[in-house]
Amino acid sequence: MSDWISEAPEAAREYLKDRRLDEVECIISDLPGIARGKAVPASKFARQKYFHLPDSIFYQTLTGGWGEAAGDEGFIEKDMFLRPDWSTTTAAPWTGDWTLQVIHDAFDTDGKPVEFSPRNVLKRVVDLYRKKGWEPVVAPEMEFFLVARNTDPAKEIKPMMGRSGRPAAARQAYSMTAVDEFGPVIDDIYDFAEAQGFEIDGITQEGGAGQLEINLIHGDPVELADQVFYFKRLIREAALRHDCYATFMAKPIENEPGSAMHIHHSVIDIETGQNIFSGPQGGDTDAFFHFIAGLQNHLPSAIAVLAPYVNSYRRYVRDHAAPINLEWARDNRTTGIRIPLSTPAARRVENRIAGMDCNPYLGIAASLACGYLGLIEQERPDKQYKGDAYDGEEAIPRILGGALDIFDEAKDLHDVLGPEFARVYSIVKRAEYEEFLAVISPWEREHLLLNV
Asked: What is the annotated signal peptide range for this record (predicted)?
């Protein structure tokens, strides 16, 4: 076994036990969260310490276009040095041969992290916490739909057929029978996750037709973002084995709930090992309220990252299991910021704003950045909301263009996430938004063509 494999996690070594490694996928997340990289023979990978990709992959839109900066005078498409993080080595168990995946980090020719690489953005935010003596801890929840194959974009998305031969039913949250309908797909998800060394905290049926949720064990933000990045791919591969699609689109089906990536946060004092949200007697601390205030004050500026596409804003609908404002409350799922029931040691703050369509590195980074600013600014949040927050005022941007305008003005947030990242992100997202505005929708043809 090659020396580098000996540094890999146990699950990867176990996957290759008594087998010959054929190929290694060297991957990195772009801004949308798509895995970019190269697949190389195992023998070649063992000889190389890094490989190159152009930094222009971070200027590429979801549709394959380019942000304006790629054509600006003075823009030079530079090669990056991509170096493997051995701790991310994991199996690709759906392939036809014995393949491993390894996430790489991006550096420039001076050895400095490339600021607009999403994994580097998250590392930057985590490092800011650590410099203050804090260790951030997160636990993401992943919602997604299993849908029938859709090869014609002009047709509506339909729920997949369950093993009963009927389409997946809506409004069956937490139904074990509904989960059983997708049994073969879920079995493959569990098998792939086990082969990759990932621990699933639970799978439940959500409120949408064919909508499931997977919860992950809390831990280090970068490791959890890596897992979500990997999970999106393994879930898609499991679905394809059973003639259906897995989609992480925020709102794939009309009149159904959308899919979120709820993010639970807590912060540990590195010196004492204690949760800074709980005091010696188990009560709420000032830091707990400061963190909440940071989310309330800065999430509006970060929503362009947490809701990165035009479709993302279709999720924020009153009474459809998604928040419409940034009120906070205890054990109240109608608010944008929820405090779950817990022991003092496990006290945490849940951000319910992020969509499952966001890049996991950037979504977690942006959410932590808002909390960090709150801890630094030490302001108090609004009074805890009582009752149904859907009765309150809407306080979330409803279009991507408006969210980007707010993001562009948020210099405090840029300083935490990285000014160069903020510049490139805005360029790419505005290019995507302009592409969307160039498309005439069926609704416009139906209602405007002959009536206005």
From this structure: none
